[in-house]
User: Which sequence fits this backbone?
């Protein structure tokens, strides 16, 4: 008993010492300042902060000015702005075509049977290889590309991942792994030498053109129809066409197979069943009606660590500043999405700068561009990091941290009766160490932590914010999220609906957790390792 008492006393004294070291910054986080900042950022004057438009440019300059005022170190020479070269484009759906040739016969498909979303007008043609789900997951012992040669060919892949409805699956049971995302699959096909992709709905589980959930689903009548955006470089460089079940069935028939039976065979083990499609070639021909190049900017500032050696390592706090601009019914203010995360990053930068004790590792505060267009600012940073990814130890990403989760007909999920003190953490199943630090820090704050999204494949939440590109690089990266609500991507996502007191608690938890990530002798580890990413 005496030994137990000594251990408990040591624990209490350690906690008190930690709290005293972070107290000034921790206590400085204020609801009033968050409200003032978010009132400006989500105001009519910023016109919904659509990427590459005036409102987002104002947001960029405001964030940079706040980093400068707090005394953060610029990361691009004497600037806080990292250029993100983008292509804005509109696909000509009528002219875009997929041609399927079987011997002397050919058939041409247009939307909605074959839909392209690619930023360059190119024509690629070649033989077809069915590559299962298009996944290479070395830590799971699964590779759809094992034993097949796809160099110079078009791959046909299923969307989603094996055994998605099997609670005991190595693919995170009924949750998602990082391999399900379409961008990840496109980059994987590219690494294996493919020149194009045909993507089809997995026939046994998902019906309809869009499958279940995923970014870019129905967003309501107030979301405008706006051009797509892509990275000039660093994203997928080969075209993807999404095809209907009927088009896919004709291709499978040439191999004497049925898509549903093949999927069932893959899922039963799970084990790849990839094969070439004999006697069939395809031509992918995307056509654009509009295309222009322009720069947006990630905004980044640094607080250097206090340890001469460990300051070379980095802990990241991130969010995104862009939203969807002006829709048919008015301005999409984006107070929660993601004005809340933007002002949260800024407030934490102020708090850490104010605190007299700096953690041993360096802290990077970055607000990303063009998240709503496909996580483009985050993907660009991952391809062109301002601090080495190999020494980046953890990321805390804020996206929608200002509301109480509420029923939304566009999102199917169970919701707690009272969400006024609840915070969702997405991706901690990849790093139990990360989760342990947050739970330990939460003893000072008292939020209810929710991990339900890690067990939910239908809404595909793991891929829908800026922590995801870091997860692909084996960095423990978690999305902090208070949940969906009926105002998500609506003109009604406005500042007066924000729960600022809960935001303060979330930011204090992030402050305490981030300080430990940056100061502790040990760092969070990732469960499993991916292949080296380009």
Assistant:
């Amino acid at each position: 008993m005496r030994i137990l008492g000594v251990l408990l006393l040591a624990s209490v004294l350690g906690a008190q010492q930690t709290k005293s070291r972070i107290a000034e910054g921790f206590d400085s986080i204020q609801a009033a300042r968050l409200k003032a900042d978010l009132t400006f950022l989500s105001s009519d004057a910023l016109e919904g902060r659509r990427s590459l438009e005036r409102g987002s440019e104002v947001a960029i300059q405001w964030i940079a000015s706040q980093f400068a005022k707090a005394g953060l170190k610029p990361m691009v020479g004497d600037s806080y702005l990292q250029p993100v070269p983008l292509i804005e484009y509109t696909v000509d759906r009528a002219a875009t075509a997929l041609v399927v040739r079987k011997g002397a016969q050919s058939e041409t498909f247009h939307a909605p049977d074959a839909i392209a979303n690619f930023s360059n007008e190119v024509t690629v043609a070649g033989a077809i290889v069915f590559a299962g789900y298009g996944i290479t997951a070395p830590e799971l012992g699964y590779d759809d590309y094992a034993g097949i040669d796809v160099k110079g060919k078009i791959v046909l892949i299923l969307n989603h991942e094996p055994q998605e409805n099997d609670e005991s699956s190595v693919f995170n049971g009924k949750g998602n792994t990082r391999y399900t995302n379409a961008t990840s699959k496109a980059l994987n096909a590219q690494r294996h030498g493919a020149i194009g992709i045909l993507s089809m709905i997995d026939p046994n589980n998902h019906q309809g053109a869009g499958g279940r959930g995923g970014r870019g689903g129905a967003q309501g009548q107030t979301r405008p129809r706006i051009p797509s955006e892509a990275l000039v470089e660093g994203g997928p460089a080969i075209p993807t066409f999404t095809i209907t079940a009927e088009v896919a069935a004709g291709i499978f028939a040439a191999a004497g197979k049925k898509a549903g039976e093949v999927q069932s065979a893959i899922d039963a083990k799970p084990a790849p069943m990839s094969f070439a499609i004999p006697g069939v070639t395809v031509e992918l021909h995307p056509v654009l009606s509009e295309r222009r190049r322009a720069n947006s900017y990630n905004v980044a500032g640094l607080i250097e660590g206090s340890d001469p050696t460990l300051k070379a390592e980095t802990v990241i706090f991130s969010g995104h500043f862009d939203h969807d601009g002006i829709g048919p019914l008015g301005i999409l203010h984006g107070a929660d999405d993601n004005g809340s995360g933007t002002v949260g990053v800024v407030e934490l930068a102020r708090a850490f700068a104010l605190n007299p004790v700096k953690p041993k590792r360096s802290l990077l505060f970055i607000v990303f561009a063009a998240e709503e267009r496909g996580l483009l600012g985050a993907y660009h940073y991952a391809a062109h990091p301002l601090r080495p990814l190999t020494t980046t130890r953890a990321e805390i990403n804020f996206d929608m941290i200002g509301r109480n989760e509420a029923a939304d007909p566009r999102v199917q999920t169970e919701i707690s009766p009272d969400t006024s003190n609840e915070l969702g953490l997405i991706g901690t199943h990849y790093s139990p160490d990360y989760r342990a630090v947050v739970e330990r820090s939460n003893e000072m704050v008292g939020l209810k932590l929710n991990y339900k999204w890690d067990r939910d494949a239908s809404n595909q939440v793991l891929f829908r914010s800026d922590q995801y590109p870091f997860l692909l690089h084996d960095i423990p990266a978690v999305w902090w999220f208070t949940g969906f609500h009926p105002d998500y991507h609506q003109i009604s996502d406005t500042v007066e609906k924000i729960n600022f007191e809960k935001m303060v608690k979330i930011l204090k938890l992030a402050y305490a957790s981030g300080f430990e990530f940056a100061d502790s002798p040990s760092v969070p580890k990732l469960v499993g390792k991916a292949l080296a990413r380009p």
Notes: The radius of gyration is 24 Å. The chain has two domains: 49-88+291-519, 93-286. The domain at 93-286 is CATH 3.50.30.30 (Glucose Oxidase; domain 1). The longest helix spans residues 2-28.
